[in-house]
Amino acid sequence: MNRVIDRDKLAYCPSYCEENIWHLCGALKDLFEVSYVILISNQQQQVALWQQKKSPAEDLPIVWDYHVILATIDSENENEKRAQLIWDFDSRCPFPCELSNYLSMTAPLLPAHLKNFSPLFRVIESSDYLQFFSSNRSHMQKDGKWMSPPPTWPCIGDGHNLGQFIDMNNQQHGKVFSLAQLKNFFQTEKEKSQ
Fold first, then answer.
1. What is the dihedral of CA 183, 106, 16, 139, to 10 degrees?
2. pLDDT for position 33
3. Catalytic option among 23, 25, 67, 97
4. Residue 168 DSSP SS3
5. Residue 86 included in any domain
6. Catalytic: 139?
7. Active-site residue, 6 included
8. Where residue 24 sits, what CATH number does that domain have?
């Protein structure tokens, strides 16, 4: 199976990570046996992430209300250790990036005085995200004006349920993990696949 991914041919629009990843799920669905959408936020919807292209400097984080990425588990060669990859259009990290490297560079453990900016991670199977996610882009409008120009492709689904996915108290879709729990989850996935 050909796994060469031409990033320039993938759907992408700045500031619409939830839609970019929805389209990426569709583009990669036949290439990886296992894939998960990871929605990153917290109760305050103020999460500090490093290595993001929009951060003020390379060594400083940016504070997002939420961010959306894709995790895939490569099952092409069963005789080799299976790669766990993160796909983040908005990162300075490689595209894709090995999961443990991505997490160490993007979401390091924060000191106690910054704990309110620590991320939580909602992990949902990509097939469920493709099926259940919808956006009319209303969250990107303020006073009738776009905060960032919208994608040229049509809105996804009917209505708008992004809030259900980024509300880390909502248990409707997937499971919510701390950073340590997320690492344990993917360690378990790696063990299952070996």
1. 80
2. 83
3. 67
4. coil
5. yes
6. no
7. no
8. 3.10.620.10
Q: Report pLDDT for 1.
A: 44
Active-site residue, selected from the candidate residues 88, 90, 97, 173: 88
pLDDT surpassing 70 at residue 174: yes
Q: Which of 17, 25, 93, 97 is catalytic?
A: 17
- Containing structural domain, residue 30: 10-193
Residue 2: inside a domain? no
SS3 content of the chain, % helix, strand, coil (to 5): 30, 25, 45
Q: Which residue has the tokens 């099952």?
A: 75
**Nearest alpha carbon to residue 39 among 116, 160, 129, 106:** 129
Neighbour-count burial of 4, counting CB atoms closer than 10 A to its CB (0-12 exposed, 13-18 middle, 19+ buried): exposed
Is the pLDDT at 134 greater than 70, yes or no? yes
Question: Which of 95, 106, 41, 79 lies closest to 193, judged by CA?
Answer: 79
Provide the token pair at 117. 């900016």
Q: Is 18 left (phi over 0), alpha (psi -120 to 50) or beta?
A: alpha
Tens-place pLDDT, residues 40-70: 999 999 999 999 999 999 889 999 999 999 9
Q: Is 67 a catalytic residue?
A: yes
Q: Which two tokens stand for residue 182?
A: 């997320």
Domain assignment present for 1? no
81-88, Cβ contacts within 8 angstroms, sequence gap of 24 or more: 81/190, 81/194, 82/190, 82/193, 82/194, 84/186, 84/189, 84/190, 86/38, 87/21, 87/24, 87/28
What is the DSSP-derived secondary structure letter of residue 135?
B
Asked if the structure places residue 101 within a domain, the reply is yes
